[in-house]
Amino acid sequence: MSGSSNKRAPTTATQRLKQDYLRIKKDPVPYICAEPIPSNILEWQVSLKNLEFPFKPPSIYMITPNGRFKCNTRLCLSITDFHPDTWNPAWSVSTILTGLLSFMVEKGPTLGSIETSDYTKRQLAAQSSAFNLKDKVFCELFPDLVEEIKEKQRAQEELSTRTQALPLPDVIPDGEVHQNGMPLLNGHAVLQAANHQGLQQANRNHGLLGGALANLFVIVGFAAFAYTVKYVLRSIAQE
């Protein structure tokens, strides 16, 4: 019984391998080529092609200035090709994007990262929309996002135009606050009133200073004249 089983085993294996070979030819395994030895179907030769995603981790580059990572530089993250030993082929693109987002909000240093202040990051974030609109590929891939950015820009421009067109009121709304008998004015009117008062004060100060100098010159001149007369009289007396 055992002898007959041993004779049937190779036949069973051969039939199964022939079926598997036909199945592989019809539906090949990605990145793998496999062929049995013609003289012995029990021995196979397998060739692995260049493995790509999801069998190999991706490279990640930043294009838009962001203050966290350098632009156009491969980033050293646990989800990139810098760490193939930690890569899991079961990870999807969503997993990669979620991981990238977590690295964006962290501050830990890594190859390709930069250190900037929170203020700089906010400034770059505010400028990122205008920067991306200059990227032709970005505009082609994200038309809805481009339209949203343009709508926000138009709204900001309209708000800025309206703000500049608003007239300044002549007086403070309550109309009851006064200083030196004059109503306090808004905007440039305050400056004009202040400048007018300043000019008046400057003129008064200039007049007082001029009068004091004139009096000083008179006193000095009179003293010099008296000294001269005294000197002449003394000279005559000595003669």
3D architecture notes:
By secondary structure, the chain is mainly alpha-helical. Among the domains are: 13-48, no CATH class; 52-125, Roll (Ubiquitin Conjugating Enzyme), CATH 3.10.110.10; 135-165. Helices cover 56% and strands 8% of the residues. It contains 6 helices and 4 strands; from the N terminus they run αββααααββα. It has helices at residues 2-26, 93-105, 118-133, 136-141, 143-165, 188-238; strands at residues 32-37, 40-48, 178-179, 182-183. It has a two-stranded antiparallel ribbon. The chain has a two-stranded antiparallel sheet with strand order 3-4. A hairpin with a 2-residue loop joins strand 3 and strand 4. It is elongated, with a radius of gyration of 46 Å. The protein starts with a helix and ends with a helix.
Task: Itemize the secondary structure elements and their pairings.
Elements: H1 2-26, E1 32-37, E2 40-48, H2 93-105, H3 118-133, H4 136-141, H5 143-165, E3 178-179, E4 182-183, H6 188-238
Antiparallel strand pairs: 1-2, 3-4
